[in-house]
Amino acid sequence: MKRVYNFSAGPAVLPEEVLKEAADEMLDYKGSGMSVMEMSHRSKVYDNIIKEAEADLRELMNIPDNYKVLFLQGGASQFFAEVPMNMMKNKKAGYILTGQWAKKAFQEAKIYGEAVELASSADKTFSYIPDCSDLPITDDMDYVYICENNTIYGTKFHELPDTKGKDLVADVSSCFLSEPVDVSKYAVIYGGVQKNVGPAGCVIAIIREDLITDDVLPGTPTMLKWKTQADADSLYNTPPCYTIYICGKVFKWLKKMGGLEAMKALNEKKAKILYDYLDESKLFKGTVEKSSRSLMNVPFVTGNEELDAKFVKEAKEAGFENLKGHRTVGGMRASIYNAMPIEGVEALVKFMKEFESKNHQA
Ligand SMILES: *Cc1c(COP(=O)(O)O)cnc(C)c1O
Fold it and tell me: Model pTM greater than 0.85?
């Protein structure tokens, strides 16, 4: 068996330890005589799995008691609609456009009410986070929406926007659990788990309790009403059982690694190795303004499309997978999530240096 260094943006690398544990438990989960895949979500055994996952997540993120944790299906993309359905009392909200996922959420909100563009970095291909210190937020807005880490463009809000007292909603899909967050600064934090937490199939949403009500937009499906899910502790219908089980294992792995402070330090160390090289390289360069750089997704280019393609091909042959940039932006992107070992980043930079010495004419 040979494992590659997988730089995929998502679904993405998972801790090897977690995969091995899951393999060990595949046929017989803790003496139950069955796999978690085969188990009733109403069983006592499964109830322990989901409750423990929630408790570990609460501990890791230090989630205040007045926030609910929901495990949902539909991906982050379905949540784009759930936000306006559950929060647009005045049918008006502000969106900060920092990339494709923010734009998609913005477009979706327009189906339900007035979505206002508060700021955008579209003028420079979303290569920076706009100044959000004095946004044109009006009193009648129900919330302010951000995509906190922009998976495709490799930018991250290092400071939250001044929402002028309005509720902040954040899509954290690609930076979930990568560093500590102050949950109380948000009304809603949510993300698809397939980037930095677990396998595809689940969205985790952390929602302030007062936002979970029957007062939703007319026509909101039962399943998409947060109250339905909250009242049933995410077991209104069959949840993505196996995905939640793996997420639970990842939470335990993160606790063992020292929690989110330790992950932040490690992620900073990993990202620095790559960014430092990009800053000194004569061949490769990062595409993002330094002050907006993501710790998780690192896009870079050579400036020559043919050379980019050659790099991606040769990297793959050398065991570095999924380095091709998003189909809409080209170039390369290395996603270096929690589970990417530091050795993977070091090996990648070593490979890039060799490629540079062979391909760069000074
Ligand atoms: C991948 C991604 C999405 C879309 O997730 P799905 O679960 O596929 O709908 C949304 N937002 C961000 C920031 C992402 O990285």
Answer: yes
